[in-house]
Amino acid sequence: MNRPVRDKLAQLVPIIRGLLSDRTNDEDRPFRSVIVTSVTTPEAMGFAASPESVQKNNWPSGLPQSDAPPLLVQTTLLHSGEKTDELLKQHIQEKVDDYTTKHGCKPRIICLPGLGVLCLGLSAPAEDPPLKDKVAVVTGAAGAIGYGVCKALLANGCYLAGTDLPGQRLNDFAAELTAIAPGRVIGLAMDVTDERSVADALAEIICTWGGIDIAVINAGIAMVSHLKDMDLEAFRRLERVNVEGTLLTLSQLARHFIRQAIGGDIIVMSTKNVPSPGAGFGAYSATKAACHQLGRIASLELAPYDVRVNMVAPDAVFSEGGHKSGLWEQVGPDRMKARGLDEKGLQEYYRNRNLLRARVTGRHVANAVLFFATRQTPTTGATIPVDGGLPDATPR
Question: Going by DSSP bridges, is the β-strand pair 323-324/307-314 parallel, antiparallel, or unpaired?
């Protein structure tokens, strides 16, 4: 798919998805999401551009068949300036209302001249998994916490986009999850410090499944250094990933959720180091505190759109399902040297320092993410600690 077509679809498809999502009687989950697939093959392009073919239901190969005719939506309003979204919503709503009155159902096939064809899945029945047909994106996914979160989202019915820096680690991660949930996983290369990279990855997700409902902002890096020895460029590298990366991702997601207009959930991966920083860990503690604060501000700004933004603050998670933590691969050797411990001893040290003597795992962090993603309570701007009980990390 070429970039101009993809970028236009990324603007238009969430609006259509929002307007076609069924309302529920649940105040916490007011809409039932649908999966929307963009088809941009030459056959689909030709079909969408031919009103005569659309009227006669001359379905091209590769498109699902439907008893009801497709809906034709003109795309000229994409070039209408500042109020494009409002004009598009009004135009599409009128077309959908007319179609529903005439045919007694919402359209499942939508033709967009110049852009292709949209195919809508069926809404999930209430008894299905709680997150069925929700689309989730997890940044910094190819590590211990990311793996645990991704598995949990898939187990609860999500379509999942796992993003990370390009490379074999991401490829292997995506292949493993695809084997667990065929057809519901994509792995995408994304650099959170690059605005274009973030926009491209989110556009790819939107064009694949129609939109995004849940985002877990998990990308982050660490280093060990005392303030007196701090290398400024090394600090700036953490600042770019942990702070600017969070800001760029939140910014793109906010635009999308407002355009889609069916609410959403953002979970920011914080850390126990926000309320309880550690000596020699100043760069990580400071930049993650800024990341955490951006999440709190986003909860204020996005609440009017029913977008809930919450934080999860884990203590050390070393591995999950064979996937090691990238953060602990960076800082673990220094921590082991400082305490005279090997890898197993270091993990025992962190387990024994919490009140419950609990080993914190990616699965535990995933459970906290699910609490927010499934909207168990009407909560935004809150933090769940996942640390076994650390008195020093209690907010004060």
Answer: unpaired
pLDDT tens-digit map of 72-91: 888 877 766 656 788 889 98
- Percent of all residues in the chain with a pLDDT value above 90, rounded to a whole number: 69
Mean pLDDT for all residues in the chain = 90
What CATH number should be reported for the domain whose range is 135-389?
Answer: 3.40.50.720
Domain boundaries, given as residue ranges, for the chain: 33-120, 135-389
Rounded Cα distance, 333 and 324, in Å: 14
Residue 120's contacts (CB-CB under 8 Å, 6 or more residues apart) are 20, 34, 35, 36, 106, 107, 108, 109, 110, 210
Q: What is the pTM of this model?
A: 0.92
